[in-house]
Amino acid sequence: MRVLEVEKLVEIPEGVDVKIDGRVVTISGEKGILTKDFSHAPLSIQREDQLVRIRTEWPRKKEAATVGTISSHIKNMIIGVTKGFTYKLKIVFSHFPISVKVEGSKVIIENFTGERSPRKATIVGDVKVSPQSEDVIVQGINLENVSQTAANIEQATKVKIKDPRVFLDGVYVYERLEGVET
What we know:
The strands form 4 sheets. Strands 11-12-7-13 form a 4-stranded antiparallel β-sheet, covered by helices on one side. The longest helix has 22 residues, at 61-82. The mean pLDDT is 94. It has 2 domains: 5-82, Ribosomal protein L6 (Outer Surface Protein A, domain 3), CATH 3.90.930.12; 85-178, Alpha-Beta Complex (Outer Surface Protein A, domain 3). The chain has 2 helices and 13 strands; from the N terminus they run ββββββαββββββαβ. 20% of the residues lie in helices and 41% in strands. The protein is an alpha+beta fold. It is elongated and about 60 Å long. The termini are far apart.
């Protein structure tokens, strides 16, 4: 049986400004401004006082699921502009000490399992990466950019050719936090 309509409401906290132009949502807060285009989705997004209403009428199964997905994106954007996101990665090595540094929009991982050439990972968007003694801290307001940058760093240190059960060297995500620590 097909549902008549699917609707989700997202509450807007104080200090956050939401502008909706068609299906382009712009959210601004104390940490910055995020804009996302949802024009690919067949649904309506409207602002009503301190609520954002996402709804679709006579949806198919995938269209009904899209309502929940887009409401989650908007919630993450609100969290991003109010608190921000932090991913912590641990540098793990057994024999060859790995050194991590940032050069422009790249993270350079040197001496990974004794390799001569450094491995490189791309920093996506406006994300701040700060290597420390045993950790790498990835911070930003856009969850997608922060998580993709952390994934790029993790994938850059993937063990190739050798047995990954024995060679556990790498840089691994061990904590995800809401809020940017200074």
